[in-house]
Amino acid sequence: MKESKQTAVGRRGKKPRKGSRRVSHRRQNLVITSLFSLSLSMAIFSSLQNLRRSLSSSLLRKLKHGHHQAAVTGPRQFTTCEGSRPSIVHKRSLDILHDPWFNKGTAFSMTERDRLDLRGLLPPNVMTPQQQIDRFMVDLKRLEMNARDGPSDTNALAKWRILNRLHDRNETMYYKVLVDNIEEYAPIVYTPTVGLVCQNYSGLFRRPRGMYFSAADRGEMMPMVYNWPADQVDMIVVTDGSRILGLGDLGVQGIGIAIGKLDLYVAAAGINPHRVLPVMIDVGTNNEKLLKDPLYLGLQEHRLDGEDYLSVIDEFMEAVFTRWPNVIVQFEDFQSKWALKLLQRYRSTYRMFNDDVQGTAGVAIAGLLGAVRAQGKPMIDFPKQKIVVAGAGSAGIGVVNAARKTMARVLGNNESAFESAKSQFWLVDAKGLITDERADIDPDALPFARKSRELRQGLREGSPLVEVVKKVNPDVLLGLSAVGGLFSKEVLEALKDSSSTRPAIFAMSNPTKNAECTPEEAFSILGEHVIFASGSPFHDVNLGDGKIGRCNQGNNMYLFPGIGLGTLLSGARVISDGMLQAAAECLAAYMKEEEVLQGIIYPSISSIRDITKEVAAAVVREAVAEDLAEGYRDMDPRELQKLTKEETLEYVQNNMWNPVYPTLVYRQD
Ligand SMILES: NC(=O)c1ccc[n+]([C@@H]2O[C@H](COP(=O)([O-])OP(=O)(O)OC[C@H]3O[C@@H](n4cnc5c(N)ncnc54)[C@H](O)[C@@H]3O)[C@@H](O)[C@H]2O)c1
Ligand SMILES: O=C(O)C[C@H](O)C(=O)O
Ligand SMILES: [Mg+2]
After folding, report:
1. How far apart are CA 646 and CA 148, in angstroms?
2. Residue 74, domain member (yes or no)
3. Could you give the number of structural domains in the chain?
4. Same-domain check for residues 204 and 291
5. 276 phi and psi, to 5 degrees?
6. Are residues 236 and 368 in the same domain?
7. Residues in contact with 331: Cβ distance below 8 Å, sequence separation at least 6, in sequence order
8. Residue ranges under compositional bias (Basic residues) (predicted)?
9. Ligand 1 centroid to 193 CA: how many Å?
10. Domain boundary among 20, 43, 62
11. Which residue has the higher pLDDT, 20 or 640?
12. What is the crossing angle of helices 182-189 and 155-169, to 10°?
């Protein structure tokens, strides 16, 4: 039965997999015979369904402003609040209950049930939205009984399942749960649990979410994008699954990361969930385990490479920007080999950015500036910081490039400042310290390669990390290596001789087990004054005597939602370095002096909606200042230009979607 199941699960119209071809004819015949009568009735049912679906989608397309947009003719966006207007629906009955965009489940009022032909299809008791949430939370919390150590325990996956089921049946309620409990559930829908979900995705897969473009769809992508039901899409997060967190190539299963990032777009940035689209571009996988796994849902072929690969990504970009010219595309978890190249290829023509390169860089800059403040030093001291970076992939390279530019700006933004700033960095990768003696050096790492003839203290090409830390005595040790435990006891001991009064450790690799060290390790070896940040969440450390070792989450989640929202609301055609810099500086400035002095250099995730609003407003203002803003809906660029800082914040706030049920009204086209 395995083969017939594979054929049924989303494989229609695609060429059969190698595994299916191996099935004997006798067994195939058996399967076909036993399923024949079932197939016949299914076929009749499914053609009826298809007819209904195509009818309703053609009706939808006739709508000028899209699925949830018909009522957008009200007062100016600037003064209205998303979610308070009625929504026009074009369905009734079960179609609504099965549609997570409009479903309210047991919260449909009796008059609405009558109006929408729902009476009798739901238990009679009408619940308030809060009662619904309460019931759901009881179920969700039941798992807590057996939980041991927070987000990393095995119950995390069970929680993800429960939340995912809610996502499938009622999006409004799902996001309400997420927004109201973001600190508790971000680690489930996002890092670290999302990593576990991606690793197990073929088994966890229930309902499809988002779009899948595969190497087998070449030449078909333009018509394919019209299969998506929404006429308006604001935000796409796309991955090719080649480097999911620090977990390597997970192929098609990487779709989970795009879904998780978009969950934060909705929860943190208030992007309307009707207008987000997670995308997986499946160009094969080089993960040998997945290539052999009979349950794997993706193409069981090695990854496309070179021009073949580029032509698929090009075709995808052309297709989505043709249908949705104003969409913003966030590239996520592409292996470093392609991440920087694709960014350069598209960034001046399309509204796109790479979160791992640019979002991470901004978050790291904010943290690095925070570490300077935590030492009680002024910003002018930032260019004096000695920074050792372990990991020279897309994330590490993104960070050193952005930090170098920031140092240069502090020093007066001239050529010589830019030139001298690069000597503050020591880049270490899997082969050790990168110097100009490195054979086949990555061109992106080249500017940061130490000159061997200038190296002192016995350092040389390939010196191990511990040697580099011992000899450089850095102020900052930053890890984007994907190697859990890389900051060993020896490395941390070496950091004791740091020239800084408060050395900073950024163990930024994800998920939890890939962190370069834990906060316990950092604080126990380096003491209470060390500044600690990690990519995945850890708890603060109790250091005894009433002292607390602060654990910060240094994750690009503090920036990408605001970068996306600010770009959307400014209508900027491209995402400039200045807009990214404005986002990073806004995050850095968000922290108060007293917090920073306590070692708190990033905000708590519970305030992520507020931070995102601030970041988005900073991005809007920078886009306006750089004359890139073309406006959004009825806010034209001239009006945008007139907004004060406070008015920009208000404009952003008023355009953020809130998880409240709109009143539904049926209207036939
Ligand atoms: N916290 C965040 O916001 C954030 C953002 C982006 C990426 N990341 C994490 O960063 C990690 C790396 O991402 P990437 O795209 O750059 O990956 P990558 O695989 O391209 O790069 C990893 C780099 O680490 C180096 N490395 C491997 N072993 C090493 C060792 N023993 N010592 C020193 N360096 C070593 C490799 O040579 C390579 O340069 C991932 O775990 C990812 O989850 C975190
Ligand atoms: O996804 C995250 O948690 C951060 C980052 O984008 C990563 O790839 O690790
Ligand atoms: Mg990422």
Report:
1. 44
2. no
3. 3
4. yes
5. -115, 150
6. no
7. 238, 239, 339, 342, 343, 352, 353, 354, 355, 356
8. 11-26
9. 19
10. 62
11. 640
12. 100
Considering the domain architecture, whether residues 325 and 279 belong to the same structural domain is answered as: yes
Ligand 1: does its nearest atom lie under 6 Å from the Cβ of 479? Answer: no
The rounded Å distance from CA 508 to ligand 1 centre is 9
User: Do 414 and 301 belong to one domain?
Assistant: no
Establish whether 510 is an annotated binding residue: yes
Q: Is the CB of 430 under 6 A from ligand 1?
A: yes
Tokens coding 421: 């700033």
H helix or E strand, kind and range, residue 140: helix 129-142
Is 190 a known active-site residue? Answer: yes
Half-sphere exposure of 574 (CA within 13 A, CB side): 13
The model's pTM is 0.85
Positive/negative CA dihedral, 193, 196, 197, 198: positive
Q: What CATH number should be reported for the domain holding residue 457?
A: 3.40.50.720
Q: Is residue 107 assigned to a domain?
A: no
Residue 87 included in any domain: no
Tens digits of residue pLDDT in 395-404 = 999 999 999 9
Q: Are 267 and 178 in contact (CB under 8 A)?
A: yes
- Own/partner pairs for 133-137, CB < 8 Å, 24+ apart? 133/173, 133/176, 133/177, 133/180, 136/166, 136/173, 136/177, 137/177
- Residues 287, 363 within the same domain: no
Residue 99 forms part of a structural domain:
no
User: 490-515, pLDDT tens digit by residue?
Assistant: 999 999 999 899 999 999 999 999 99
Alpha-carbon distances of 228 from 67, 100, 255, 312, rounded to whole Å: 11, 15, 16, 19
Q: Is 555 annotated as a binding residue?
A: yes
Termini Cα distance of the chain: 44
Match 């309307």 to its residue by tokens.
272
Surrounding ion ligand 3 within 5 Å at CB are 333, 356
Q: Say yes or no: 326 and 377 in one domain.
A: no
139 shares a domain with 225: yes
Q: How far apart are CA 14 and CA 360, in angstroms?
A: 37
Element spanning 353, H or E: strand 352-354
DSSP 16: P
Instruction: Report whether 477 contacts 507 (CB < 8 A).
Output: no
pLDDT of residue 410: 95
Nearest CA to ligand 2 atom 9: 245
Spatial contact of 261 and 330, defined as CB atoms under 8 Å apart: yes
Contacts 24+ apart (CB under 8 A), 580-583: 580/353, 580/358, 580/361, 580/362, 580/402, 581/362, 581/402, 581/405, 581/406, 581/622, 582/618, 582/619, 582/621, 582/622, 583/362, 583/559, 583/615, 583/618, 583/619
Q: Is the ipTM value over 0.90, yes or no?
A: yes
Give the residue-averaged pLDDT of 527-550. Answer: 96
**Residues 440 and 532 placed together within one structural domain of the fold:** yes
Catalytic residue flag (residue 651) = no
Nearest 5°: the CA angle 531, 532, 536 is: 160
Task: Using the predicted structure, report yes or no on whether residue 10 has a pLDDT greater than 90.
Answer: no
Domain that holds residue 8: 2-62
- Give which of 352, 391, 375 is closest to 483, Cα–Cα: 391
Q: In DSSP terms, which residues pair with 504 in a beta bridge?
A: 476, 531
333 is in an annotated binding site: yes
- CB-based contacts of 165, cutoff 8 Å, min separation 6: 206
Percent with pLDDT over 90 in the chain: 75
State how far the Cα of 128 lies from the Cα of 126, in Å rounded to an integer: 7
Q: Name the active-site residue from 91, 104, 176, 261.
A: 261
Beta strands 504-507 and 476-479 are parallel
Q: How many A from CA of 333 to the centre of ligand 2?
A: 7
Task: Give the Å distance between the CA of 251 and the centre of ligand 3.
Answer: 14
Among the three residues 299, 334, 369, which one is the final residue of a domain in this structure?
334
Is 219 exposed, middle or buried (CB count within 10 Å of its CB: 0-12, 13-18, 19+)? exposed
CB atoms within 10 A of CB 28: 13
Q: Of all protein residues, whose CA lies closest to atom 8 belonging to ligand 1?
A: 509
